[in-house]
Specification:
This protein is an alpha+beta fold. It folds into 3 domains: about 10-65; about 70-115; about 125-265, 2-Layer Sandwich (Phosphorylase Kinase, domain 1), CATH 3.30.200.100. About 45% of the residues lie in helices and about 15% in strands. The protein has 7 helices and 6 strands. It has a 6-stranded antiparallel sheet with strand order 1-2-3-6-5-4, with helices on both faces. Helix 1 packs across helix 3.
């Protein structure tokens, strides 16, 4: 008995292959026998063959014409090689830039290791930046506003977890306006913005944790935009007084704030709060 798997049934693929003259001898004999037994399939195959012959006749001039240069295999291969070399050149250029950049970085590293440190931000630069942001605000962005320092100290101490001193700068002509808490790289920082009674000039007192910084006396740092910061450390915190003011004027106010902070928390007032609108006394020494 003949195994049907050795001669699968005639299908559409066989008929198309018959028209295209692509059947081997064994399969061709089977397809011819099939067409003899199936007149409808034979009629379709004859129609396909007629279309094939018509196409061959119409395309004969094209088939006999020489192949355009752009379609020749050698031309295509040359184009592929050119594009490959172009990609390689781009990769080489990128690698060269990477090596140059790495070499420059290594040289800079060598300069740093050799004792030429990169330019650093001024000390307590974050205090000047906080002053720039908050002192310029005309709306109340603060969590608390008060007109006397004592009203702020308890509020800040509770949130910072340690007693704090808010300098009383009324003798220098400034009253507290707002208090702010903000994050810093060293922990929660606080800033009190003051306003001068006569013209509304803003000044800020900033403090943030600095447990790893030794105690240091008052120093000065200039910042962009004409802002000036006087800062100091007491072994626990760093403090800064910042304003866009003449250096001599701000120095006297910073000395006043430093003395109050180093003196520690003041005892509770026995009298009523000082009226914030009273006329300020001039700075006694105008330290220069």
């Amino acid at each position: 008995m003949t195994d049907p798997r050795a001669h699968p049934p005639i299908g559409e693929d066989d008929l198309q292959a018959f028209v295209d003259e692509r059947l081997d001898a064994a399969r061709l004999a089977l397809v011819r026998r099939y067409l003899e037994e199936h007149p409808e399939a034979a009629a379709r195959v004859r129609a396909f063959a007629t279309q094939r012959d018509a196409l061959r006749t119409a395309l004969a001039p094209k088939a006999s014409a020489p192949i355009p240069a752009r379609l020749r295999l050698a031309h295509i291969r040359a184009g592929l090689r050119a594009r490959r070399w172009q990609r390689l050149r781009h990769m080489a250029a990128a690698l060269l830039l990477l090596l140059v950049g790495g070499a420059a970085g290594w040289l800079a590293h060598g300069q740093i290791e050799g004792g030429a440190p990169p330019p650093a931000a001024p000390p307590m630069a974050e205090a000047a930046e906080a002053h720039r942001i908050f002192a310029a605000e005309t709306r109340a962005l603060a969590m608390l506003a008060a007109t006397v320092p004592e009203a702020l100290e308890g509020w800040l101490a509770e949130r910072l977890g340690t007693p704090v001193v808010v300098p009383d700068l009324l003798d220098a002509g400034f009253r507290p306006l707002t208090a702010h808490l903000m994050p810093s790289a060293w922990g929660t920082a606080a800033m009190v913005v003051y306003e001068r009674l006569t013209d509304g000039t803003r000044l800020s007192f900033y403090m943030r944790p600095a447990p790893d910084t030794p105690a240091a006396k008052l120093k000065c740092a200039d910042h962009p935009g004409g802002r000036l910061t006087y800062y100091w450390f007491d072994g626990r915190f760093g403090y800064a007084v910042t304003a866009a003011m003449p250096r001599e004027r701000l120095r006297g106010i910073a000395f006043l704030a430093e003395r109050e902070v180093r003196a520690g928390p003041r005892p509770p007032r026995q009298e009523g709060p000082r009226i914030a609108a009273q006329q300020p006394r001039p700075c006694p020494n105008n330290i220069g």
